[in-house]
Amino acid sequence: MLSRSKLVGLLLVVALVIPFAVTTAQDDTIEIVFSHAFGDENRQQLVADVIAAYEAEHPNVQVTAISNPSYRDTLNGAILAAQQGNAPHIVQVFEVGTQLALDSGIFIPVSSVTDAEQLADLDDVIAPVRNYYTVGDDIWSLPWNSSNPILYYNRDIFEAAGLDPDNPPSTYNEVLATCDVLMEQADALGLQGCIGWNMHSWFVEQWVAEQGALLANNNNGRTARATDVMLDSGAMMNIFNWWKELADNGYYIYTGALEDWNGSDALFTGQQVAMHITSTADLVNINEAAVEAGFQMDTGLLPIPDSAERHGVVVGGASIWLTADHPQEELEAAVDFMIFLGNTQNSVNWHKGTGYFPIRYSSIDQLEAEGWFDQNPFFRTAFDQLTNTVEGYATSGALLGNFLEVRTIIEEAAQSVIDSGVDPLEALTEADARADESLAAYNEAVMGE
Amino acid sequence: MSLDTQAILWSLFFGAIFGALITAYVYGRHQRSIITGAGVGAVVGALSGQILMLPLRHCTFAYDPEVVAEAGTRFTPEFLFGIGVVLISSLILLAPVWVWVSQGGRLFNPEVGRTERFGRSPLPYLFLLPTLIILVFFLYWPMIRVVLMSLETSFLGLNARFVCVDNYLRLMNDSRYIHSFTVTFGITIAIVIIGMSIALFISVLASQKIRGANIYRTLLIWPYALSPVIAGLIFLMMFNPQVGIVNQVLYTLFGIRPRWFSDAALAPWVIILTSIWNNLGFNVLFYIAGLQSVPDELLEAAAIDGANAIQRFFRITFPLLSPYTFFLLITNVTYAFYGIFGAVDTLTQGGPRGATSVLIYQLYEDAFEYTNKTGSAAAQSLILFLLVAGLTIIQFRYVERRVTYGE
Fold first, then answer.
1. How far off is chain A from B91, nearest CA to CA, in Å?
2. Residues A272-295: tens digit of each pLDDT
3. CB of A137 within 8 Å of any CB in chain B?
4. Helices (H), B259-365
């Protein structure tokens, strides 16, 4: 009996120790760990292809990709690993996590490792994208998957309603006017509403930027840490008043759930609404669904308030960050791989495979030369919108450590206006107070007393 | 932090007073000396009060002139909260003393759990050791950590800073948190009462001697095999305001399309319905088992005496089912407090405007969605734990009295 228990114990010890023994085996190859948030097969395969190509070029480097269930888990996992001295070299962080990533203290700017040649190469990255991830004078992270919101519309319904399908509305009033026409014939057209977008703060943030307004003080937190979230601004009121008017007229509908991307796509592809606003990242999927449902869709610029000058959009999506505390050669290899991941060709492949847009001017040139936009005209809108963006603090996006909570606060304010008939000014005043309080608590937690 | 003598004295004082008063009463009731009781109670209460006061570093009783000036009284909210903590803490050692006295000088009932097999051998404790080790590392230690975390603020687990009971006091003044309490109790009551009534009704039907009864019974248990998240997804599709089957039917019949998830009056009912449906199989399973254990002779005898079906049900079947009802009451309450999370997360995410923001969901949001609220989330999880533990104790004390156990 004793011998058996000893045997079992021994087996246990072996089972526990062997994995460590194997992983600690060392040779000359440089191992780079890349932690990202893409769980779907399609995107994982694209990543694997890039890694295989890179390893073929650099036989002494081995890149291991780790996939996490969400952006949030990716960042949390990296922070935990860093506390144990075992951080993945490259970590994908979503755009609103930028301040959080900075505050976590586990990352170093990519531009602190790049050499002059690499740095010059990064000038090719589309300016509004690069600006988002440049804080102070440092390029902290490199963009990877980027997107922005555009208007989707149903050409067939436009034609049936006697509207010009080549001329979608591009301002708030034009949307209202178009909806007036469409909803007069709602029953004939089979429409439940005129326009639907998912109740997500992202669109509100975009509309603030389009008006050239700021979401937070200290130039969106870019010149100093933000201490005031400005949710009761005139720009916010423009958005909420219009949104409320659409809803009051029965023009705007949504599924009732917050951040319901798929549900609102379904409203559009199910032809319950004639217009839809969502990310360019869904272009491929939505178009496929439209073809299947037997209607023709098209895209237009994100509609903006009539009084505003079009300032352009804030980049959405995620970027890749470099963690500190690795040997110099590993850091250099990691940065080299990060640049490779977003080089002209890989950026083109990534765009074609996912719908996220390429992040380099040279990639767009290459796509133009290939005739990609002639075959896929929808994609042009997104590029026009992005490349025409006016550079500035408004379109660089806000840096807020509590951005996730601010998003929830904005969405709850929107829901109270749209569903509970709360006055926009009242809703935004309350939201503003909550957001400021939350930001103060965050800043206090980060900086200590 | 230097030791604050005055604060320590306060905490000893409240523990001693509380211990002395109650213990004297308990001693008196069991024909023992009240004076001895007061003495023993004072010492044990004062000592036991320190169990929770030490990790708190007696901070609630610390004298801060600014805070006192602001509150206008020495009895600041912190101070009062501290008294509450001392009382709870003193119960940890006082309760065993009271049990000891009321059982005539024995802590454990000698009739229970006595076997001669091991005698005085330490072997049983050795056998228990693996379980104890697991409990200590995965249950007790995390629990202690949660207590300590609830006294701190931190950012991503970094920059941890001791803030005394601020997290708790903030929660008490947080109107959203108070609202969450109301929501939780409302939803819980609905789930428990409606859910168990429907389950009992269906179980009675399914227990009739009809052809294929076994098949019905099996089918009725199926919803329980689904996780709350899957149940939530099914209801999400069914209740989708624009394309869901529910609204298609309602629109065809009545021309209405209720906004199930964004209307604050409707959203809680979708959650309640989902939870009831999801939990139905579990309730039915136990009720059917219970119904099968009701002796036919009793029902027959009653029938011969002229009792009709309704009288037989309420006078015989229902009382005989009481152990099952009691068990299901506890599990359903626990489900409504904790298990509801999956449904809320998939269906409404706590919205609209907090109408379905139950305690467990709010806790999750603060702990895992936001970065600087782990302290508050830890405090919330302790409050939730005390709440559910308290409810269970109340149920055992007051509801179980009405339970008739069989032989």
1. 34
2. 999 999 988 888 788 889 999 999
3. no
4. 267-292, 296-304, 309-312, 318-320, 322-334, 341-347, 359-364
